[in-house]
């Protein structure tokens, strides 16, 4: 039996591995099918991580993490986890190769992924004028006009955030009504920099070798087509957390989750199960920033060390 299984190899999982092994936990295995790094490796530019003054690509940014985190004895199993279950007072890590690894504790760091809208040009220009993170990419469009797609809390909150640096924000939604909280809608409607375009859908995202230069919109009531000349569209049509490993045979979840399927944790990253922790974008109310995920991973590892010390 291993002391700790870490499921997921992004910033949260790697930080957890670093702090756990350096903190003296002996048998720690990181389960990650591919190279560690997480979804941040798809980012073209990172310039807001404290202490890293160079602007780096996601891949270059995560590369030294792996070397550092494996220096203290963290081992990786390059295999996908299909399920986590419980037996007696420990956990079973089921992997795609048919093996089952018992573990005294688990840190879940499987992350999540923003939903794609399925628009023509969206995949082609992703990272080159199609973004799912205003905090990450808004600064690159300072004093420019930008577009935001979506009608929920995230879309409106990110649109409001973008008004701090962009000259104008076009908020596009397929319905006249919004799913966001009434107070958020009110703030958005009262912001002179936000122009609502409803009810409308994005037909196509256009661009060239330099990235996005326009989005084609269609009014769903009149059928009118219009073209917005913008260098970026921020897409906020939902977020999927990678919680499949928590699903049990009877359809229940291994630990307590919120209505979105994100894992409920306390400030110490503890779930409602002893010895089971969650960190990064898989947890409820995650800010979805690398620095926060790394902090979560460290917190979870410290909590886990305390748990293992008290359950010898």
From TrEMBL:
Q: What is its EC number?
A: 1.8.1.9
Cofactor(s) in the UniProt record? FAD
In this record, what's one Pfam family? Pyr_redox_2
Q: Name the catalysed reactions.
A: [thioredoxin]-dithiol + NADP(+) = [thioredoxin]-disulfide + NADPH + H(+)
Q: Which UniProt keywords apply?
A: Disulfide bond, FAD, Flavoprotein, NADP, Oxidoreductase, Redox-active center
Cofactor annotation comment? Binds 1 FAD per subunit.
**Record domain FAD/NAD(P)-binding: where:** 3-297
What PROSITE patterns does the record point to? PYRIDINE_REDOX_2
What GO annotations for molecular function exist for this entry?
thioredoxin-disulfide reductase (NADPH) activity
GO CC annotations? Answer: cytoplasm
**One BP annotation, GO:** removal of superoxide radicals
Top-level class of the enzyme under EC nomenclature? oxidoreductase
Q: How does it assemble?
A: Homodimer.
Q: Which family does it belong to?
A: Belongs to the class-II pyridine nucleotide-disulfide oxidoreductase family.
The name under which this protein is listed is: Thioredoxin reductase
The gene designation is trxB
């Amino acid at each position: 039996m291993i002391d700790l299984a870490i499921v997921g190899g992004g910033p949260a999982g790697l930080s957890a591995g670093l702090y756990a092994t350096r903190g003296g936990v002996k048998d720690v295995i990181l389960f990650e099918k591919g190279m560690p790094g997480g979804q941040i490796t798809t980012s073209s530019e990172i310039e807001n991580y404290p202490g890293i003054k160079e602007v780096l690509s996601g891949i270059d940014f995560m590369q030294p993490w792996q070397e550092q985190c494996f220096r203290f004895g963290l081992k990786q199993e390059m295999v996908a986890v299909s399920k986590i279950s419980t037996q007696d007072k420990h956990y079973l890590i089921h992997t795609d190769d048919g093996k089952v690894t018992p573990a005294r504790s688990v840190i879940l760091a499987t992350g999540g992924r923003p939903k794609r809208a399925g628009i023509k040009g969206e995949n082609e220009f992703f990272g080159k004028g199609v973004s799912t993170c205003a905090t990450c990419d808004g600064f690159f469009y300072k004093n420019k006009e930008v577009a935001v797609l979506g009608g929920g809390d995230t879309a409106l909150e990110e649109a409001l955030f973008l008004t701090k640096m962009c000259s104008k924000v076009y908020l596009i939604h397929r319905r006249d009504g919004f799913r966001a909280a009434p107070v958020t809608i009110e703030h958005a409607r009262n912001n002179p920099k936000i122009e609502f375009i409803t009810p409308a859908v994005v037909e196509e995202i256009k661009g060239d070798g330099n990235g996005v230069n326009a989005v084609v919109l269609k009014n769903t009531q009149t059928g009118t087509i219009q073209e917005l000349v913008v260098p970026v569209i921020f897409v906020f049509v939902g977020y999927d957390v990678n919680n499949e490993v928590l699903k049990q045979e009877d359809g229940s979840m291994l630990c307590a989750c919120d209505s979105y399927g994100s894992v409920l944790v306390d400030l110490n990253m503890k779930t409602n199960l002893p010895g089971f922790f969650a960190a990064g974008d898989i947890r409820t109310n995650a800010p979805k920033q690398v620095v926060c995920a790394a902090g979560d991973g460290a917190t979870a590892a410290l909590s886990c060390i305390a748990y293992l010390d008290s359950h010898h």
